[in-house]
Write a structure and sequence with these properties.
alpha+beta; Aspartate Aminotransferase, domain 1; Aspartate Aminotransferase, domain 2; Aminopeptidase; seven-stranded mixed sheet; globular; transaminase activity; aminotransferase; Aminotransferase class I/II-fold pyridoxal phosphate-dependent enzyme
Length: 801
């Protein structure tokens, strides 16, 4: 299989957000002439507000409002000067009060995103390294990526995995001066904590370790003077820690704050901090509101507010304990996450709660893995106990209704979040269906398979029998695949759906760009299975084409699709697959919204190329249909060299030729990290030579006919489709004899001679194939992962030098 294009991440996010927007739960506009914080106007309704990040409700405090109004009267709506030149008159007071809160030097920033962009490139030296928690906020990751241009190593660990962190510290300790670990204090989706005490212990063990903690969600509602969770755990702020807090969210105003006890680093950042220097400063109203909030934080009142919120959080926790709702993380933070698993269930649940009178947020990709979608609920001092109780009652009622409406059950959610499975009402999606799931094509009726699926690629019945025999009992684990064949019938035993899956070891970077693969392959020199995972894939790494047959006109097609999803999830759990991939779909895929709703994200693959041939076509007639420009290309760069080349069609090849063919294939495989898969087993080429459906188109130079300079490995799928599955070349002769173009042309000639109706030219090199008349079509895959770690790690590694 060719590499999936990875530069479409933003397109993927756009599709997910668009889906949620169309479901009516994102990109909404609040309504109303006033706003109290307790309720919010949405779609002509006043909803109880359980989505705020103003946990203490200070954004509605009359003292902050009055201060902001007075500042506008005195100083205007903004102070349009760079803070590097002069700060507005209120800044000094704010800096003094926030310094008093933290008892350490501070720097006020416009917001936390700009703050990270200003601080990280200053704090991290070219001799340092960065390790990111894979759930650290996007703004931190984005700022860290800038340092790839300075060749600063950036790596990532799984969420809160300190054993993994320690291993990476050890691997970097000999080559790097400082090792920065970047994490959140409180994580914004699940409301879970960073293990700050353990990190502090690890920093004592490894003096090179420095901590960079974004604690904007831990601010105000906990800690001395409301300085947040991280500082409450750290106690004193040592020089190896940089801490970010916020003046917005719970603080009630705007802006962010960096706390730094290292005087030298503090002066360097404050003197020149990129966006901190060139961005506009906070507006006078924001500064004044922040001063009023700081006064509250410096008074005993802050502890009264914290206790008031804590009472509400404890009450909500106690109510949830009496339910079977899948609460993903239980702790004392005001952030809660109720898992729904599939996005479509999340959409349904949120819409039901809004109709019932409650506003909540949906946690969705990329903030969480797609199949870890859920409802994010925040508790604030605005929320009264009676509406907190009413929310829990509404969730208990509508959660089961949302499951039923989306043909799922709680067990799927428990599995998705790796929680202990509780008893739940099962939704039977198999009514009126007969499901056949086999582990060998030998157990599947040949005619049914070939009629539904097997008229293309190397996955007719005979082709799959060949693949099963080739990819078993091999020495290397990546050369051993497991196969499953799924056919779903109606009551009359008529197939509604048919497809097949393989479980095999994939390189994780197969889905990313060449720069990431280069960095990872360097690691694989000593650890060949570095960043590899067991993947459950529709089709195989050997096949391309339409792997899924669905009778779109069948009245219970939906039930068949749901049954397929349950089969996939069962196989995934039983065999511990880390990723599920549904492959080779057209751009206008009628199942697109269904797959997204089931927790898959769409990524673009290389374009697919095919040629349709007329009955009794001749090669002359075919070439005459090419454009004049392409005919000229054909004459000058392909046909002109036929006389000096020895071109043969071989049904079998000698042992010596097999060695040459294998080497030629390896040349192509190794030369293209854009196709970064494991190689195929050695016995493949002998098996091809012994199989009646395979043949070899070989090219030699007539003057030196002892060795092959190019080969196309072709499969004959019945009498319908000719499949040039793989190519091998000697690159020393590629440009002199246009070897690849010659192989393509000879493939077309062979298919025409055999009177095939279609040539599946596969993916990649679409520019070359188009010149010879191929129809080029976009192809997409749908991917579902158990977490976002690999996806985010690949994003970090891309562009590494």
């Amino acid at each position: 299989m060719a590499k999936i294009k990875h530069n479409n991440f933003l397109d993927t996010v756009h599709e997910v957000f668009t889906d949620a927007k169309e479901a009516g739960i994102m990109h909404l506009y609040a309504e109303g002439e006033t706003f109290t914080g307790r309720t919010i106007g949405v779609k002509n309704q006043q909803l109880f507000h359980f989505g705020t990040t103003g946990y203490l409700g200070l954004e509605q405090d009359t003292r902050l409002k009055a201060a902001a109004i007075e500042a506008i009267k005195k100083y205007g709506t903004q102070f349009p000067l760079s803070k590097s030149y002069i700060s507005n008159p209120l800044y000094k007071a704010l800096e003094e009060k926030v310094t008093a809160m933290y008892q350490n030097p501070i720097i006020i920033t416009k917001n936390s995103t700009l703050g990270h962009m200003g601080v990280i490139p200053n704090a991290v030296n070219d001799r340092d390294a960065i390790i990111l928690d894979h759930q650290v906020h996007w703004s931190v990751q984005s700022a860290a990526k800038v340092l790839k241009n300075r060749s600063v190593p950036i790596d990532m660990i799984r969420h809160n995995d300190l054993n993994m962190l320690e291993d990476k510290i050890k691997s970097l300790s000999d080559s790097r001066k400082k090792i920065w670990y970047m994490a959140d204090g409180i994580y914004s989706m699940y409301g879970d904590f960073s293990p700050v005490q353990d990190l502090k212990t690890l920093a004592l063990k490894y003096p090179q370790l420095h901590l960079y903690i974004d604690d904007v969600h831990g601010m105000s509602w906990i800690g001395k003077n409301g300085t947040g969770y991280a500082l409450s755990e750290l106690g004193d702020l040592s020089e190896n820690v940089l801490l970010f807090g916020t003046l917005s969210k719970t603080f009630g105003a705007s802006g962010a704050v960096l706390v730094c006890s290292n005087k030298k680093m503090y002066q360097e950042i404050k003197t020149f901090g990129g966006p901190l220097t060139f961005s506009a400063q906070l507006e006078p109203a924001s500064v004044a509101a922040a001063i009023a909030s700081a006064d509250i934080h410096l008074s005993p009142e802050i502890y009264e507010l914290q206790n008031d919120l804590r009472t509400r959080v404890h009450y909500f926790n106690a109510l949830l304990e009496q339910t079977n709702l899948p609460l993903i993380e239980k702790n004392i933070s005001p952030v809660f996450f109720i898992g729904t698993g599939m996005p479509k269930t999340g959409y349904n649940f949120v819409n039901r709660l809004m109709k019932e009178g409650f506003y909540v947020n949906l946690g969705i990709f990329p903030a969480v893995p797609v199949k870890n979608t859920g409802v994010r609920i925040t508790i604030s001092r605005h929320n009264q106990k009676k509406e907190i109780k009413a929310l829990v009652e509404a969730m208990v009622y509508h959660f089961s209704k949302a499951l039923e409406a989306t043909w799922t059950n709680a067990q799927r959610i428990y599995h998705a979040f790796k929680m202990d499975v509780k008893e739940s009402k099962e939704i039977n999606v198999q009514q009126n269906l007969s499901i056949q799931l086999e582990d060998s094509i030998l157990k599947v009726e040949k005619n049914i398979w070939n009629t539904c699926v097997g008229k293309q690629g190397v996955f007719d019945w005979e082709g799959l029998k060949f693949l099963e025999e080739t990819f078993k009992e091999n020495m290397l684990k990546e050369h051993n695949w497991r196969f499953w064949y799924l056919i779903i019938y109606d009551q009359n035993q008529s197939p509604i759906l048919a497809t097949f899956f393989t479980l095999g070891l994939w390189k994780d970077d197969m889905l990313t760009d060449v720069s990431a693969s280069q960095a990872i392959e360097y690691q694989r020199k000593t650890n060949p299975y570095y960043l590899t995972s067991e993947v459950l894939s529709m089709g195989t790494l050997f096949t391309e084409g339409k792997h899924l047959y669905v009778n779109d006109a069948h009245p219970i097609k939906q039930e068949a699709l749901n049954a397929m999803m349950e089969s996939i999830e069962s196989l995934e759990r039983e065999h511990h697959a880390k990723m599920v991939v549904l492959r080779d779909f057209a751009a206008k895929n009628p199942l697109h919204h269904y797959f997204q709703g089931q927790g898959f994200v769409r990524v673009q693959m290389p374009d697919s190329c095919k040629i349709n041939l007329d009955t009794n076509e001749t090669i002359e007639a075919y070439c005459n249909k090419l454009s004049s420009r392409n005919r000229q290309h054909l004459r000058k760069e392909i046909q002109a060299f036929e006389s000096v080349l020895q071109i043969e069609i071989l049904q079998t090849i000698s042992a010596e030729a097999q060695i040459q063919v294998k080497q030629l294939y390896n040349n192509v495989h190794q030369n293209n990290l854009g196709l970064n898969t494991f190689s195929f087993p050695d016995k493949l080429f002998e098996a091809m030579s012994n199989h009646p459906n395979w043949e070899f188109i070989t090219i030699r130079i007539r003057e030196t006919p002892n060795f092959i300079i190019g080969v196309m490995l072709c499969y004959k799928n019945g009498t319908h489709t000719y499949v040039p599955a793989f190519v091998g070349m000697d690159y020393d002769y590629l440009t002199k004899y246009y070897t690849y173009r010659q192989l393509l042309y000879q493939t077309i000639k062979r298919a025409v001679f055999l009177n095939f109706r279609q040539i599946d030219l596969g993916m990649t090199a679409s520019f070359e194939k188009r010149k010879l008349g191929a129809v080029v079509e976009e192809r997409f895959a749908y991917i579902q992962t158990s977490d976002n770690y690999t996806l985010e790690l690949m994003g970090i590694l891309e562009g590494h030098r």
